Amino acid sequence: MADLNLTIDGKQITVKPGSTVLDACKQAGIYIPTLCFHPDLTPYGACRLCIVEIEKMRGLPTACSTPVTEGMIVKTDTDQIKNFRRGVLELILTEHPHPCLTCWRRERCGPYDICLRNVDVTLRCVLCPKNKICELQEVTDFIGIDKVEFPYVYRNIPIDHENTSFERDYNLCIKCGRCIRVCQEIRGAAAIAWTMRGSEALPGTAFGISLKEADCQYCGACVDACPTGALMERDRRWEGEKEKQVLTTCPYCGVGCQLNLAIKDGKIMESVPARENDVNRGQACVKGRFGIKEVVHSPERLTTPLIKRNGKFEKATWDEALSLVSSKLGSYAKDATAVLSSAKTTNEDNYVAQKFTRVVLGNNNIDHCARLCHAPTVTGLAATFGSGAMTNSIREIGNAKCVFAIGTNTSESHPVIALEIKKAVDKGGKLIVGNPRGIRLTNFSDIWLRHAPGSDVPLLLGMCKVIVDEGLEDKEFINSRCENFDDLIGSLKNVKLDEVEKITGVPQETIKKAARMYATNKPATILYTMGITQHTTGTDNVMAIAYLAMLTGNLGKPSSGVNPLRGQNNVQGACDMGALPNVYPAYQSVTDAANKSKFEAAWGVKLSDKTGLTVTEMMDAAHEGKIKAMYIIGENPPISEPDANHAVAALRKLDFLVVQDIFMTETAQEADVVLPATTFAEKVGTFTNTERRVQMVRKAVEAVGESKPDWQITSLLAQKMGVKGFDYQNASEIMTEINQLAPSYGGITHARLETGGLQWPCPNADHPGTPILHTNQFTRGKGRFMPLTYKPPAELPDAAYPLTLTTGRSLYQYHTGTMTRKVKGLNDLLPENLAEINPADAAKLNVQNGEMVKVSSRRGHINAKVKITDVSPVGVVYMNFHFAESAANILTIAAIDPVAKIPEFKVCAIKIEKI
Amino acid sequence: MRERILPILQKHARQRESLIPVLQEVQAELGYLPPEAITEIAQFLGISRSDIYGVASFYAQFRFEKQGKYAVRVCQGTACHVRGGKRVLGEVVYQLGIEPKHTSPDFKYSLETAACFGACALAPVMVVDKTVYGRMTTTQVKKVLSQYP
Question: What is residue A198's predicted lDDT score, i.e. its pLDDT?
Fold first, then answer.
């Protein structure tokens, strides 16, 4: 469709088709007052403030809901409009204390000045928590109103202080409905709705129950949407205007939400999701919205290097600490040292860490926590497609005709991606959920495959079999783009649907329905996370998913693909940077002689061609005394490793341990030297999110104490050890080195990232980035099918340990809790570990809701509170792994996938006993 | 509770459009909409409880309190207002000891106001269950109520 021309107040404007008159006015730089309008919501036309005159149209249409037509003539500032707006605003102001809003002295008024208008203290703007950042003030000032003919009756509703993140004061509500609409339309939570009607109508919950009971997810979208002081972040009250705003990337999950940090007096006031991007488009979750400033400004931050002397940490200077570390690390044999890098630090930090390992320590013993989450994705997808990352982009999910979400509790772990799933469903797309647990997504799914933990391969092969048997496969795609299809056919011969039903517990008919739904609604996308990977059969699970996509030709097209949702903010980047024992940056194998000589030339040293140790192997090697010293950057193995007791014992066996972190973690307590690092808000760098999008991390505040960025600490250490090639002045220089050595990052420079993220592969400075992988051919050429068979999990329930434990992550805490547990608001929402069990199991064990029980496996035991819920299927117990005092990973088994070396976090046998 | 609601739910499709018919039928079965019923409906239809409460609280026909044996309604429409409907209501409130939209603690009476019964010629009007009492005066209120022990 052609662009449309219109005239606004005599100005000629050309706009895109589909624009509203309000969009056109904005484009023309004409301010139209609005209150119910929100750019992300469907037009509502309730506040009537945006009325305009349009020639040949009756009455005064609202600009927000009137689409532009060719040749429209619009007037926005006639006397009639001004009069009407004043009248409308007067009526709106009967809902809100207005004596100050209409007072010309408002700007000059101090909190306790004597007021000639005799305004009650509770009604004064100057005492409102949102004074000076209030949209209602802005609109009133623009319209210019000096008195309101109608009275305002204070509603006398008590202020809701229930949660520690934000406050609700409905005495200030003007009933624009933005909070409700954002909660329903965008978040799909509908924790609040219009209650009652007429003059009594107000946003509220069912029967006035608390937000927590109403299933609120505390994302804060309502707070950001509120134009008045009715909804207000608690820590932001009375702070007024910000001094500056810094756009950066959220440090929590792999979605990579863009956040605007508001800064005043060198402190973060609030973190508000940014709108102008393709990742989160104005949304965030409770962690990004309310869980940042308390972490960055926590009094528990490490501020100086610490050296352990006689079992006690003592403050030290950088010089002392680095000298000690350098002399120690230099004193061991080449293969007796190892480094754990971090998926929480930037690409630059990770690049320097792996370079340090390879150049300074002279081995490839570097790994990070990707081993514990998506290692099978890397191995499984590398074998089938040639590269292991999300094939498509987040913003495409919303247009999929079918979403198959298996082994992912998206609304808890990747809340903003869950919004895309909801968008797809709202547009008429189908949703298939594969999960043993009744997660939130199952509330609006078309099919829920409730398969037994660890039975993913039979379930997926069963679906493949139905597709092949019923001729629903994309033959052309298989013939032209894939190879070894007969291998899959061979594997499918052994698949019997009645056996699949027995293993998975999913009725045959449901599997058939799901297979047909997935195969016939195109484009279809598959999302998966740890529920697929954290198994001894992780690689097989991932390959089975890849087959399902290849079989139906759902690859290389928009809104299709195989999409592993990465867990940590920069786990994709840490892998890309080569913080892995087998590859250099950009997945160039260390065993390949050509790669080795390339990096030897670049770094000017001899490199080892021996594949290094993985995290799990490092722990074993430390236990056996083969690894003597470790350098751990921002990781917390005592909580995150399976069979955590074993991991702690391994760390204690080390001769020398240096830990670099922002807090005194459980790992840091075991260290000989602790080095204080800066948080994301105090440094410059880049994170690569789950969709391979590299995004800037910008410095918002000064580093606390003597803390330094991770890359700088590692570089200083290398220099101290007398190695050349680590004299970086800033993060941008490191990126330049990455550009030269990592082909997929070739064109990703800090300068380009200033204007927005770039998705790799981006080989040169002119390349626009790659939103969709494998469009014309797979990275490895052809998509490869391989034979697959079902292997049961390593440890199944038996008479002694009759229950299955599966672990996971909650929306309110993050990983080992080193950051989120410093945030009061988050701790209020989920303060402790809960063992979620089915009512039937609870009855059998005779335990009550909230009762403390002893949960034990063959490896150890912990105490936890029982939560009885039918979210957990019969025989399955679910626990979060965030809590050090009740660490679920003491129970989990260290059985690993033979290829990817990932431990089986998702299945182990346990028993529950009354205390 | 669950046993009484489930048969009603199963008659309906799991879609938003079913909400009002479901609410009506559940209310017909239980007499009112208790929180547990809203929870059941929410789980079945996949609509949040707040959303359902929002819809139900909009319509005057839905009640959230257990209803009394007798439904007492006093008209507050224009004609009744002019002829003293407000005083009649005041007397009813005094006699029953409950405010409009509430039920007496012994679950005998539920009091409601109405905007018009279409019997303006008889104003002021009060209605108990299905019987209309016209030309009410405050002195008659006690007499009328005494017929409903």
Answer: 87
DSSP secondary structure code for residue A159 in this structure: P
pLDDT at A145: 87
CA–CA separation, A202 and A338 (whole Å): 59
What's the confidence (pLDDT) of residue A265? 92
- % of chain A beyond a pLDDT of 70: 100
* N-terminal to C-terminal alpha carbon distance within chain B: 29
Angle between helices A615-624 and A644-653 (to 10 degrees): 50
Helix A485-493 to helix A456-469 angle (10° resolution) is 110
Strands, E assignment, A394-479: 402-406, 430-434, 447-449
Enumerate the domain spans of chain B. 2-58, 70-145
State pLDDT tens for residues A448-489: 999 999 999 999 999 999 999 999 999 999 999 999 999 989
Specify the pLDDT at position A247: 95
Which two three-digit tokens encode residue B136? 């009410």
Mean pLDDT, residues A45-54: 93
Summarize pLDDT for A224-276 with one digit per residue, the tens: 999 999 999 998 888 888 999 999 999 999 999 999 999 999 999 999 999 98
Distance CA A730, CA A714 (A): 13
| Helix (H), strand (E) counts: chain A | 31, 36
Q: Sort strands A861-868 and A834-837 into parallel, antiparallel or unpaired.
A: parallel
Is residue A379 within 8 Å of A543, Cβ to Cβ?
no
Do β-strands A402-406 and A430-434 pair in parallel, antiparallel, or remain unpaired? Answer: parallel
CA distance A185 to A41: 7
ipTM: 0.86
Q: Which amino acid type is present at position A245? A: Q
- Residue pLDDT, tens place only, A298-336: 999 999 999 999 999 999 999 999 999 999 998 998 899
| Structure tokens that stand for B133 in this block | 């009492």
Shortest Cα distance, chain A CAs vs residue B49, angstroms:
6
Q: Do A189 and B53 touch (CB under 8 A)?
A: no
Check whether domain B70-145 has CATH 3.40.50.1980, yes or no: no
Measured between alpha carbons, how far is A879 from A818 in angstroms, rounded to an integer? 18
Q: Which of B38, B48, B57 sits opposite A190 (nearest CB)?
A: B48
Angle at A652 between CA A649 and CA A656, to 5 degrees: 145
Nearest chain B residue to A211 by CA distance is B50
Report d(CA B27, CA B60) in Å as an integer. Answer: 13
Q: A142: part of which helix (H) or strand (E)?
A: helix A135-143
Tally Cβ neighbours within 10 Å of residue A398: 19
* Distance of alpha carbon B75 from alpha carbon B116, whole angstroms: 6
Cis before A376 (ω within 30): no
Amino acid identity of residue A565, one-letter, is L
Query: Residue B54: which of A193, A209, A444 has the nearest Cβ?
Result: A193
**The tokens of A120 are what?**
């009650």
Whether chain A has a CB inside 8 Å of the CB on B54: the answer is yes
Chain B residues with CB under 8 Å of A215 CB are 48-49
C-alpha span between A535 and A895 (Å, rounded): 9
**CB spacing of B50 vs A196 below 8 angstroms:** no
For chain B, helix (H) and strand (E) counts, in that order, are: 7, 5
Q: Rounded to an integer, what distance in angstroms lies between the CA atom of residue A139 and that of residue A690? A: 40
pLDDT bucket at A757, cuts 50 / 70 / 90: very high
Contact in structure between A490 and A787 (CB atoms under 8 Å): yes
Q: What is the pLDDT of residues A412-429, one digit of tens each?
A: 999 999 999 999 999 999
CATH code of the domain occupying B2-58: 1.10.10
Q: What percent of the residues of chain A are helix, what percent strand, and what percent coil, each to the nearest 5? A: 35, 20, 45
| DSSP 8-state symbol, A253 | B
